[in-house]
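Input.
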Amino acid sequence: MKRFLPQYNFLPRVRDAHGEYYPYLSDEAMRNLRWVAESYSDVLPVYTPGPDRLMKGDRIRITEGQFKGVEATVIIQPGAGRKEVMVCVENCMYVPLLSVEPGQYEVVALNAENRHVYTRLNGDRIPTGLHEALRRYHSPEGVTAEDRALATEVLRQYGSLQFESDVMRCKLYALLLPAYAILGDRERFGQMLGMIQSLLPIVRAEQSRALLLVTLYGCTNNCLYHDQAHALIDVWRREQPLKKNKARLLGWLDDHDVWFGHVPNP
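Output.
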């Protein structure tokens, strides 16, 4: 009623790039709010932040503690030097989840309002760490506790993400497949392998396709992926100057050949 009869709406009008409107609660948002309220014994520290004070970040799902199952938004307070986890109620009110700590939630959606999505999946630390962990996975020494911790971190941070873009799905799957392998989760590894095999025929971007093929080869030692990866990216060796991403994939492919004993005779 308050949506269509704004004169009865006691909440302030919301203005954004798409215009202005009076906020209202969907049934789903109300269920989520009630869930949180029950954890607070029906007493909520609710406030309405000004747009200059708060910025909406990643969507998360609480996985542990009294708020388990609740979806929330990571809010950054500029100048405060800290992050707070909030339940966002239709962009008009925020309820702080005071007792939620890092490690008690999983990311379900990245902030897509800027290049934040790409920079998060394009970092060097996690792909490089997984590559080294995968080397130990295929060696007699086996994976270390640090390797398993990194793989667990990857699954907690990215395991529930979903993307419509094929390019972003390739980046995501290239992290998840080795993470499942390192942790020895055969069931989820098989499921992810099937998803990648279904995605591969429709990927047209050359570097995204190369990333999947190199990842598949490195995780399976399958001769088909070996041949396809080499056929696609060996021609890059003649490019000058060679871009960083291409050089990294070529390096990984060469490493895989060494691991599996497929280095050609000189």
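Residues 6-109 form one domain.
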